[in-house]
């Protein structure tokens, strides 16, 4: 495992979490409205949501204790919601218990309930807003990070590189002859190629690697804890596997997918912008050399091609 390396959840996990939480919030709002109605109408004696462990059986509880992505379960905001939710049901149980025993329900009882409800509502809305912000960090066509979010992660990785001295490499890749694919088969097929390439990359990169759509058909990859040699081995495997992939055309035939790659290593004498430029220069050499190749930036020395 790479120490302190930045991990970013996948788009599908963020999207499912956001949609699930949004639905649970709507269900809870309906439940709260019904609960307030029952308080006003004093119809509380038999309320299944006031039973012990009822916080697990209500609509929100079924979502919360259901199957959730690992990234969400590890978020402190998600963890903290549990006690807030339990507190709402505990206050509700207290009110129902008083109602069942014909005891008076005071304004303090209701205020305690609403205090717990307010804290709970604030916590779930805060989590929903954070998930929404995460959704905005993606390029939704390809499922990769957008440029702004990726550069934020790069800043953290560069700081980690400087602090710990662990190697880190950047890879810039360009899908070969992409303009020809768009011109010959149309943008729908072009989008399918983009999606297929990035889906492969997302599935085959390491969990702590980061990937973004840098522009058009160019993608930038951050490989923490890798030297130029180990980065080359990772990228060569990707290059070979991609070259074996095909996209079938509805009218018949297939489109081959290949890419060219440029690799540069982070250095204390070069800032991030310069390192990206070095990867771009290496990529240019790979494309000039016939495409479907890898070039490694080695400063003024001759670059290596295989």
In total, the number of domains comes to 2
Q: Estimate the helix proportion, in percent.
A: 55-70%
Which strand-content bin applies to the residues? 5-15%
Main beta sheet:
6 strands, mixed
* Extended strand count: 10
CATH topology of the largest domain: Alpha-Beta Plaits
Mean pLDDT: 89
Q: What would the principal axes of the Cα set say about the shape?
A: elongated
- Within the largest sheet, what's the order of strands? 4-5-3-8-9-10
Termini separation (Å)? 29 Å
Identify the CATH homologous superfamily of the largest domain.
Reverse transcriptase/Diguanylate cyclase domain
CATH architecture of the largest domain: 2-Layer Sandwich
Strand-and-helix sequence, N→C?
Answer: HHHHHHEEHEHHEEHEEEHEE
Query: What is the CATH C level class of the largest domain, in words?
Result: Alpha Beta
Name the poorly predicted regions: 300-306
What would your notes on this structure say?
This protein is of the alpha+beta class and 306 residues long. The chain has 2 domains: 11-135, Aspartate receptor, ligand-binding domain (Four Helix Bundle (Hemerythrin (Met), subunit A)), CATH 1.20.120; 144-305, Reverse transcriptase/Diguanylate cyclase domain (Alpha-Beta Plaits, 2-Layer Sandwich), CATH 3.30.70. Helix content is 58%, strand content 14%. The strands form 3 sheets. A 6-stranded mixed β-sheet has the order 4-5-3-8-9-10, sandwiched between helices. A two-stranded antiparallel sheet has the order 1-2. Strands 6-7 form a two-stranded antiparallel ribbon. Helix 5 runs antiparallel to helix 6.
